[in-house]
Design goal:
Layout (H helix, E strand, L loop, with lengths): L1 H16 L22 H4 L3 H12 L11 H5 L7 E2 L9 H5 L11 H20 L4 H5 L2 H29 L2 E2 L15 E2 L1 H15 L6 H4 L8 H15 L3 E2 L10 E2 L4 H17 L10 H9 L10 E5 L33 E2 L1 H4 L9 H4 E2 L1 E3 L4 E4 L6 E2 L21 E5 H16 L4 H14 L14 H16 L5 H7 L3 H16 L12 E3 L3 E2 L23 E3 L4 H9 L18 H6 L9
Antiparallel strand pairs: 1-7, 2-3, 4-5, 6-12, 8-11, 9-10, 10-14, 13-15
């Protein structure tokens, strides 16, 4: 089903481009550009063609400029779980990760334009589909199909706008096709107004798009669960903190609206609706299976835990595929040409996991794959994220950078934790339902062993602290953490905390002086068998390797200092770096667009 869906996306992209308006290059920001002979009467003359148009709107999610790498692996870091590529300033991905992003950064314009292209394609569908004769006068099946497509387009537009807002803040408001706009060069609209529109659209979409069991499509297509999950997420951002413009009522500071609980109520209600649909979405009993046996095996997760994921076209190109498992994850054959391992696990994140938490060795990979396709240990300061691994995919090629690994947009565990967070915030303490949702996620992380999960706090502050930590443990490496910290106004605090803890590691201070200096692994283990360690990551003994085991210098203060502490969050400034500057090309062509502080 995946390959069929992706072929349809490519065809839909070609079809939709012909309607007459796309966002083109950064030199032609928001310019109307007719690019083929297809017109709206043809594209929106049948249900089949309308579906192709909507699939064309999906196409802007993937590829190098979408969630194939930049939106998934450049923009969400540095955070307190993962650091972007270390090294000197480059006016590219390193500067983005370490909060030194300039308007001239070469990694800004293309993703910015692709997101706007997605908005435009969705706008074309949203405008034209309800005007089709079949929308109101067709057969029952035609009307249902078109309403579903309409709802999908509304949801896609919301996702594209949401990604733009959480990275750039206030934006021009455009909810019509560019061909219908008298002025394409608009000033910014306050993000609260934009969010309100997206929330209203998603409320409508939830009445149009069926649940996954009723749609007959894969989770690469939007279902009602995806609509509601995205609405919950956007509501939490609408009610959360964000960096406001200097000219706003908030005076250029991190601020949240006074009526923020209104939006937490929306989030709670949407999560409840998903949680009540128990036959549609639930947790996979195995955390590891979600990633190893399903996402990395190109299979749809059977329990509906992965509510929505971006479909990638395996082995194709930077247009519609992903570099998940190539840019990040364990290095394959031990060489950079077989994997960059560009995202580094922060050691404090690794040690935030209890030794019995099964999620640790899914989220954190402590090995490389050698040239003989066996496993060899990596040192602590060289650990990489582990949810998207080349050695977990069914076909491992020698030179390809694109493996077709999908990017999960919304998982059911996120829904449970959003519900618990919203409930706690609304009531100023967690209800039994919030505690149950929190513990359901945590219990799965410990393999179902209730004796290991500890006691859940029952008062507001301690529960919120526990929930912040649980979101980190559960959702690490999925592009959410930095943005969570921003909406909680905790990003600067957590960056400072990580730096202080890393300094303790470098100085060999408690508690880090009690961790092992060396780790011992069984060499020549095949990829399928996994790493075999002789000692614990949490205990300094034994001092020497058992017979037959190889040694790595696991804990190195010098490695932490040189690779991580020297780069991590090095240019972050609170109330200034929570947003990106606009690409300079966008500012140049739109004189009404005010540059963000940077």
């Amino acid at each position: 089903m995946k390959n069929i869906f992706l072929k349809k996306i490519l065809l839909g992209s070609i079809t939709l481009m012909g309607v007459g308006a796309t966002l083109s290059s950064c030199e032609k920001y928001l310019e109307v550009e007719p690019v083929s002979s297809f017109g709206p009467d043809y594209v929106f003359g049948s249900v089949t063609n309308a579906e192709s148009a909507v699939l064309g709107a999906y196409a802007c999610l993937g590829g190098d400029q979408g969630y194939g790498i930049r939106l998934s692996m450049y923009y969400p870091y540095d955070s307190d779980e993962i650091m972007g590529q270390e090294g000197a300033a480059d006016n590219e991905r390193r500067d983005i990760a370490h909060y030194n992003t300039q308007p001239s950064n070469t990694q800004l314009a293309n993703p910015f334009n692709q997101l706007w292209r997605g908005v435009e394609r969705a706008n074309i569908c949203i405008y034209n589909i309800p005007r089709m004769t079949q929308y109101t006068s067709g057969t029952a099946s035609e009307k249902a199909a078109l309403r579903k497509l309409h709802g999908e387009a509304l949801t896609l537009r919301a996702q594209y706008y949401f990604e733009l807002i959480r990275n750039w803040g206030d934006l021009p408001e455009q909810f019509l096709p560019s061909s219908m706009e008298a002025d394409l060069f608009k000033k910014q609209t306050d993000r609260d107004t934009l969010y309100n529109k997206l929330l209203a659209d998603l409320a409508d979409a939830s009445t149009m798009v069926p649940w996954r069991s009723q749609s007959g499509t894969s989770n690469e297509r939007i279902s009602q669960g995806a609509v509601r999950g995205l609405r919950a997420r956007i509501a939490l951002f609408r009610g959360g903190y964000s960096l406001r413009r200097v000219t706003s009522a908030y005076g250029g500071n991190m601020a949240r609206p006074a009526d923020y609980k209104t939006y937490y109520q929306i989030a709670k209600a949407e999560c409840e609706a998903i949680m009540q649909a128990t036959t549609e979405h639930n947790l996979n009993p195995s955390y590891r299976a979600v990633f190893k046996d399903n996402i990395c095996q190109f299979k749809e997760e059977p329990n509906g835990e992965v509510i929505w994921e971006v479909g990638m076209a395996g082995g194709s190109s930077g247009t519609g595929d992903s570099k998940l498992g190539y840019y990040n994850g364990p290095r394959y054959t031990g060489t950079a040409s077989q994997g960059n391992s560009a995202l580094t696990i922060i050691p404090t994140y690794f040690y935030a996991f209890d030794s019995t938490d099964l999620r640790r060795d899914v989220s954190c990979a402590q090995y490389n794959v050698t040239g003989t396709l066996t496993l060899a240990g990596r040192i602590m300061s060289d650990m990489v994220d582990g949810k998207f691994r080349r050695d977990w995919t069914p076909v491992v090629t020698s030179g390809a950078q694109y493996f077709g690994i999908n990017w999960p947009m919304i998982r059911y565990s996120d829904v449970l934790l959003m519900f618990a967070e919203a409930d706690n915030e609304i009531n100023q303490n967690p209800s039994p339902a919030a505690i149950a949702a929190f513990e359901k996620v945590r219990l799965r992380g410990y393999g179902g062993n209730a004796s290991l999960i500890g006691t859940t706090p029952t008062s507001y502050g301690p529960f919120f602290t526990a929930l912040m930590n649980e979101r980190m443990l559960e959702l690490g490496g999925e592009g959410l953490r930095k943005f969570d910290l921003i909406r909680w106004n905790k990003l600067g605090e957590r960056i400072d905390w990580v730096k202080a803890e890393l300094a303790k590691m470098v100085a060999n201070q408690a508690p880090y002086n009690n961790y092992p200096r060396s780790m011992y692994f069984l060499p020549n283990q095949p990829m399928a068998g996994g790493m075999v360690w002789a000692n614990s990551f949490y205990n300094p003994s034994p001092a020497t390797a058992p017979a037959g085991y190889s040694t790595i210098a696991w804990f190195s203060g010098t490695g932490v200092a040189n690779k991580i502490l020297a780069s991590f969050g090095r240019s972050f400034e609170a109330n200034k770096k929570e947003l990106f500057p606009f690409p300079q090309a966008a500012i140049d062509v739109n004189p009404k667009l005010d540059q963000n502080e940077y």
